[in-house]
Specification:
single chain, 211 residues, alpha+beta, 8-stranded mixed beta sheet, 8 strands, 26% strand, globular
C-alpha cells in the first residue's frame, strides 16, 4: 500500500525497520486507554507501563510475523501514526497460538493474558461474519494530535478494506465517544454496545465497498 491520502501525508505498509517506532507511538497513545488500565494496572504505575510495553511489543511482533496488515502514516520519512488490522485467518481469542500465549504470560501475567483473549472472543461473537477484520490498534503520535490525522488513518483503513475482495468489512471497539465520532464520520455504524470487562464501549463496523 502506498496511498497518498493527501499532498502532505502518505499511508504505506510498515517494514520490519518501522516496528520499533510504531511500538513507541502505540505505547504513548494507549497509555491511558481504559481497557489496558483495567487489564494491566494493579496499582503500580511502573509495573503497568512495563506490562503495556510488553503487550504492545509482543502483539505487534506477532501481527508482523503472521503477515497481518500494519499501515503507517508518514510525512516524508517520519511516522506520525499507525494502524494494525487483523483478519480471522489469524486464530484469535481462545484460538490464539500457544507461543503468543506464552510470550504474553511472561510480559503481562496470566490474568492480563486471559483478559486480552476474552476481549477478542467477545468481539468475534458480535461480528457479522468470519470475513470481517478487527482494527486492533490505531494511534497518532502524541506530538501530532489535533491535526486531523486520526481521520486520515481511518480513511486509510476504509481504503484498505475496499481493496480486499475477500473481506466483508472491518470492526473496531471504541470506549471513548470522541473516538467513536471519528469512525462514524467514515461510515462506521454501531453494531452493539458492549462491556469488555468493566469497560463500556461501542462495536463499530464499516461495510467494505467490494461487492
Amino acid at each position: 500500500m502506498d496511498n497518498p491520502i493527501s499532498e502532505t501525508y502518505r499511508a504505506v505498509y510498515l517494514t520490519a525497520e518501522d516496528l520499533r517506532v510504531a511500538a513507541s507511538i502505540l505505547y504513548n497513545a494507549y497509555h491511558d486507554d481504559p481497557f489496558f488500565i483495567e487489564t494491566l494496572h494493579s496499582g503500580d504505575l511502573a509495573l503497568y507501563e512495563q506490562k503495556l510495553r510488553g503487550a504492545i511489543r509482543e502483539e505487534l511482533n506477532e501481527l508482523w510475523q503472521q503477515e497481518q496488515t500494519l499501515i503507517g502514516l508518514f510525512e516524508g520519512e517520519r511516522m506520525l501514526g499507525v494502524v494494525c488490522i487483523v483478519t480471522q485467518q489469524l486464530p484469535l481469542g481462545e484460538s490464539r497460538y500457544w507461543h503468543w500465549r506464552l510470550k504474553m504470560l511472561i510480559s503481562t501475567g496470566w490474568q492480563s493474558t486471559q483478559a486480552l483473549i476474552n476481549k477478542e472472543t467477545c468481539l468475534l461473537e458480535h461480528l457479522p461474519s468470519s470475513r470481517c477484520g478487527i482494527l486492533q490498534f490505531i494511534a497518532v503520535s502524541p506530538s501530532e494530535q489535533k491535526k486531523g490525522l486520526g481521520s486520515q488513518l481511518v480513511q486509510a483503513v476504509t481504503s484498505w478494506c475496499d481493496e480486499q475482495p475477500e473481506m466483508d468489512g472491518v470492526a473496531v471497539f471504541a470506549s471513548e465517544q470522541a473516538h467513536a465520532q471519528i469512525f462514524s464520520l467514515h461510515e462506521f455504524a454501531v453494531l452493539e454496545k458492549l462491556f469488555i470487562g468493566k469497560v463500556e464501549g461501542e462495536l463499530l463496523y464499516y461495510h467494505g465497498d467490494n461487492d
